[in-house]
Specification:
This protein is of the alpha+beta class. The protein contains 5 helices and 12 strands. The chain folds into 2 domains: 64 residues, no CATH class; 132 residues, Beta Barrel (OB fold (Dihydrolipoamide Acetyltransferase, E2P)). A hairpin with a 7-residue loop joins strand 10 and strand 11. Helix 4 runs parallel beside helix 5.
């Protein structure tokens, strides 16, 4: 019996050490019981009640990156490609929802609808499942990065919004992140193909398929 207790204690100590190692990694952020943002360990907004949480878990739960300490955005789950030469740099003013952002483009405030994907609704009084998570994930991907817009054949939709593929450059990543594909790959967006804007349809379809195969978020309950 004594030997069993000793072995159990050793296993518990190893588990604690392993957990401590994981919590000290760059993929750990901190939240408070009442706040809506996630923070770095040094953030002055944190209180003694701060709790460690994996970065991806924080984003999936709908926490936003703190504007003061500027914590990291989630690592891209798939490799990113070099952004195409034909892009336009814009200033992101705010994230509206998971597939729409407001930007400063050619001196004007414009709405940009991400091409090829559709995320759950959170506007006009709706609050569909995973809508807030998609919004928070998009905000995290764009935080502390430069946003680049790539247009397809049709530049605007019938509502006057710009239609674009969005690339996020910087933040320590060696290559720009293809934002549309990342939302799909994390299971926070469905495929929405509207010709003639089909340049990346195969890549987006592959990203959605990968999320379905691993049952991420929107696809959690599929058989």
């Amino acid at each position: 019996m004594r030997r069993i207790i000793v072995v159990a204690a050793l296993l518990a100590a190893l588990a604690f050490a392993s957990a401590g190692s994981a919590l000290s990694s760059d993929n750990t952020v901190y939240i408070t019981r009442t706040g809506s943002c996630y923070h770095t360990a040094e953030c002055s907004h944190l209180r003694s009640s701060a709790m460690p949480l994996a970065l991806t878990d924080a984003v999936e739960r709908g926490y936003r990156p703190c504007k003061l300490c500027k914590p990291p955005a989630p690592d891209a789950p798939v490799k990113t490609a070099t952004a195409p030469a034909e892009t336009v740099k814009v200033a992101v003013i705010r994230v509206v929802d998971g597939d729409t952002i407001k930007v400063r483009y050619e001196g004007k405030l414009e709405s940009v609808r991400l091409i090829g994907i559709d995320t759950p609704e959170i506007t006009r009084g709706k609050n569909e499942p995973f809508g807030k998570q998609a919004e928070a994930f998009l905000a995290a991907l764009l935080a502390n990065r430069t946003a680049l817009l790539e247009f397809d054949l049709e530049r605007r939709d019938r509502y006057g919004r710009l239609l674009a593929y969005v690339w996020a450059q910087g933040g320590g990543e060696p290559s720009p992140i293809f934002v549309n594909a990342q939302l799909a790959r994390w299971g926070l967006a469905q495929l929405l193909t509207i010709p003639p804007n089909v340049k990346y349809v195969e890549r987006l379809q592959s990203a959605v398929g990968a999320a379905q195969a691993t049952r991420l978020n929107l696809w959690r309950d599929i058989q």
